[in-house]
Specification:
By secondary structure, the protein is of the alpha/beta class. Helices cover 25% and strands 26% of the residues. The strands form 4 sheets. The protein has a 7-stranded mixed sheet. The protein starts with a strand and ends in a 9-residue tail after the last strand.
């Protein structure tokens, strides 16, 4: 089953140079999670043939407009399309106030419930889990309270070898225990090891979303070893002074975080509108962390399954 990120918007501040503001969708084993919701998000969902109806959780990093101005449109369209299922939004304080006042004065109450889960952007903590992932906040350094998100796939159980089930005549009610890691003792008292009866499950995969932040090495232990890292790279390093003043990062700084965190792949994004050609940003980052790619709208990044077990 896929673990795949789709970039819906990659620009900072405003739509420019044919780039929309920040929004992404992470697909994990058939489940979809929307991350930030800049202007134009619902258009990009349609363009990328992503089923909005399958999104039940939305994660918002902070309340700057280029990360939330598409949200009211998405919510309203859900209502017009007859959504009934609850929608869960994980966000810093006050987003619920913004959305509720918009709904109040536009005169279009929604036919489905929204549950706002208010987070503390200053803490690294588990804020959501389901059958396939756990989601943790990553405290970031920006001009207003801001958090990133770390998605960790849950470990799948090992797989039974069908031939072994038949060979040892293993009862059905024992299979789950074996898959969970236990050995099995047959009626003669013979112990058949878990390793003989199973094939290892794929290693869990992970994705870290670090948007709108000044260079901040304190996040490195949180994202250590992450398979896929998105880190904002608003400016070239020649604009370091401006990046520091606005609490953003340069491409080199994003790459440095990826290197220190031993990430598998770095995705750049949140580009300043001053840059039409983004190759120079990518070149700068690659000089520090070679496995770097530009996050561009419509681009998909898949983390393949690995049979190597996590120790």
């Amino acid at each position: 089953m896929k673990f795949e990120l789709t970039i819906l918007g990659c620009n900072s501040a405003i739509p420019a140079n044919n780039r929309f503001p920040t929004a992404q969708v992470l697909k994990v084993r058939g489940r979809l999670y929307l991350i930030d919701c800049g202007e134009g998000t619902q258009v990009r969902l349609r363009d990328n043939k992503i089923k909005r109806s399958k999104i039940n959780q939305i994660f918002i990093s902070h309340l700057h407009g280029d990360h939330i101005f598409g949200l009211i449109g998405v919510l309203s369209s859900y209502g017009l399309n007859g959504r009934k299922d609850p929608l869960h939004i994980y966000c810093p304080p006050h987003l619920d106030e913004i959305i509720n006042i918009q709904l109040k004065y536009t005169g279009h109450p929604l036919p489905y419930p929204i549950e706002f889960h208010i987070t503390d952007p200053e803490k690294n903590q588990l804020i959501f889990e389901d059958k396939v992932v756990e989601v943790y906040t990553i405290p970031l350094t920006h001009r207003i309270p801001t958090q990133g998100f770390l998605f960790r796939e849950k470990q799948q159980p090992d797989s039974m070898i069908p031939e072994k089930i038949k060979k040892y005549d293993i009862p059905f009610h024992e299979i789950q225990s074996i898959k969970d890691g236990n050995d099995w003792t047959n009626s003669n008292g013979e112990i058949i090891t878990h390793a003989e009866l199973t094939t290892p499950a794929p290693a869990p995969r992970s994705y870290a979303f670090c948007s709108d932040t000044a260079y901040n090495e304190s996040i490195v232990p949180i994202i250590e070893g992450v398979d896929l890292l998105y880190h904002e790279s608003t400016f070239l390093h020649s604009e370091l002074e401006f990046a520091e003043r606005t609490k953003h990062s340069t491409a080199i700084q994003a790459a440095t975080i990826a290197l220190k965190a031993n990430a598998g792949k770095l995705i750049l994004g949140h580009y300043s509108s001053r840059y039409i050609d983004l190759d120079e940003l990518q070149d700068e980052a690659k000089s520090v962390f070679p496995n770097t790619e530009l996050g561009l709208e419509g681009k998909r990044f898949e983390v393949k399954m690995s049979k190597k077990k996590v120790k």
